[in-house]
Amino acid sequence: MTDLAALFQSHIAERQRTTAAALSETGHDALVISSGKIYSHFADDQEAPFHPTPHFAHWCPMTGPHHVLVLRPGQRPLLIRYAPEDFWYEQAPLGDPFWATAFDLEEVGTVEDVWKRVGTLTRAAYIGNETDRAEAAGLEVNPALLTAHLDWHRTTKSAYEVTCIDEATVIAARGHRAARAAFLAGASELEIHYAYVQAAGIVDHEMPYGSIVALNEKGATLHYEGKRTSVRNGAVLLIDAGAQVRRYAADITRTLAAPHCDPRFAALIDGMVQIELDLCAMVKPQLPYGDLHHQGHLLIAGLLQAQGILKVSPDEAVADGLSRPFFPHGLGHHLGIQVHDVAGRQGAPDGTPTPPPPQHPFLRTTRTIEECQVFTVEPGLYFIPMLLRPFRENEFKGCFDWKLIDELTPCGGIRIEDNLLVTADGHRNLTRPHLPA
To answer: What is the mean predicted confidence (pLDDT) over 329-351?
Structure first.
């Protein structure tokens, strides 16, 4: 049985070490992080689902707004819990959570008292969205250099964080299996979504991101948000859906063919499954993520050639940009407290940028792969008319089988996505043990 308390203590010890180093590097003596305030929609009293400040969640899994952490090198972290008396909303008692002993914990009943307890600090920074209170307390608000240092360290995951992602994966895999069964039974997009959340035991706002449940041609819209009820018995399902535990996310995508799917598209799905597994097998420390992305293009171009969609070699196709309309997004992204986690384009702790190459502008990760990083590997192959249209008339039009492309376009697209933990000599796939296919 996992000893969460022991894992968390090690996690906090590392947070203290890296935060002390970041404060020293940026000329600060203390750091205040709040869990944040609730966002209300403009001209409305309806509130958005609350998401804590990610850097607060990196330190503490306590839910709810207005809590504050006060961090000073060499001292135990002070956690000020906002615990009002309230009859409008449930105020659950804290109880005895596994993480509480890592902090000097105090409870107060008003936001004003939270900030009174913060007190007066010198050479102190603040991270969060309660900027008016932080400014009134004389804190430097959201300093970019300090934030860059903290973001950099978030890409290295502790054993506690990996355990949270593992637990989230178990939940997400349960949802994916139920969604698969619903799809094969002929369900609509909305019914497939319902099957997912029911099996996962969550409601929509508890998901780390809105699910993508796309039947047929909608799979070619990368962030499709609809949940159609009018389309049933789909030939193809692309489902991108996750779960979260203590704010840490699992992010999984599968593409499935029904028995009546065009066999040529079903063959493309099988090919993409193997490509994704081949790319995962390449993951190891010191490999630039951009090189992995480039290999993804070569493999996808090879599949397109093998299936007769492209008439040129993979090397020619990639060099001339012919694979990009089929695979327009990046191969993956860092994963953690945020689904698209931070610092993927940082070249150093100080925030030095490493922008993606012009030919791959949507690549979210340009870092060199390092031990203890967690990121996604998610190659895609889509039939997107607006991206293919320019090639119908340019000098490369003869490189494509346009009749075959038009026949496959109603099938939409394919994406396969797993989450990987980088180890000292390779990687561990966090997804496949729980969702093998």
So the answer is: 97
